[in-house]
Amino acid sequence: MKQFLLFFRKEMLEMGRSYKWLWVPLVFLMLGIMQPVVTRFMPVILESSGNMPKGMTITIEPPSGKEVMAQTLGQFNSVGLLILVLSIMTLISGERQSGVSQMIFAKPVSYVSYAAAKWAIMLSLITASFVLGYAGAWYYTMQMIGSVETAAAVKAGLLFLLWLWFAGSLTLFMSSLMNSAAGIAFVSLGVAVLISMSSEWLPQDTAYSPGFLSQISMHWLQASEEPTGALGSAILSLMCMIFFFVIVAHQVKIRKAKV
């Protein structure tokens, strides 16, 4: 436990030096605030564009608060996912290439504590960023668009956070196997997007896929009834995350044995 805390403190400092604790949550906050603000002022923006015939008016049916929150999750699932992958893709491979991991493993340290600290800092960054962005979206939606049911918003947020955890675990898994930062980002994003899109295109065949979590969370906000498959997708996602962690710990053990 002592070694885990030391490694975790080291990761916290590294995140601070690279300003990831600042810019990643700020990007999520910007994404969260931007959706309700743009939705609220879209008619004004269109009318001010100056490209409409004289006397023409635009009538846009205002969306509900639930729809705006669902659109915000869509932003997190595209731009937000890209930002998270780019911010954590070198957590393991970067230290391996720079020689830091070799210096660490030259001492009698626990490879499980090392891998667990990487996992904990990844989950902490994702959670802090998403919670800040989601809270900002919720607040501005309530102020500018309309009310959002608390229970539905909380359930949808928790499911989507689990999906981001899965994507982050996948990225850390790839970081333990590959050295190229570009390759890690490409494969991680490609697999995550493929899983998410397959759940949208083939809902019957991928009813319990981890990628179904993002679809369920958006549906939970907009539909009146509770979607099915949420529990199965959540359990499978957690099992995949555990599998990824075991493989990462095993890869770290192999690297430690070579030092």
How would you describe this structure to a colleague?
The protein has 259 residues and is an all-alpha fold. It is built from ten helices and no strands. The chain has helices at residues 2-17, 20-47, 65-88, 93-98, 100-105, 111-144, 150-177, 181-201, 212-222, 230-258. Helix 1 (2-17) crosses helix 6 (111-144), helix 2 packs parallel to helix 6 (111-144) and helix 6 packs antiparallel against helix 10 (230-258). The longest helix is centred in the middle third of the chain and has 34 residues, at 111-144. The two termini are 23 Å apart.
Q: Which strand-content bin applies to the residues?
A: under 5%
| Helix fraction bin | over 70%
* Main sheet: strands, sense, barrel: none
Number of domains: 1
> How confident is the prediction overall: mean pLDDT?
85
Distance between the termini: 23 Å
What would you call the structural class?
mainly alpha
How many β-strand runs? Answer: 0
Write the layout of secondary structure elements.
Blueprint: H1 2-17, H2 20-47, H3 65-88, H4 93-98, H5 100-105, H6 111-144, H7 150-177, H8 181-201, H9 212-222, H10 230-258
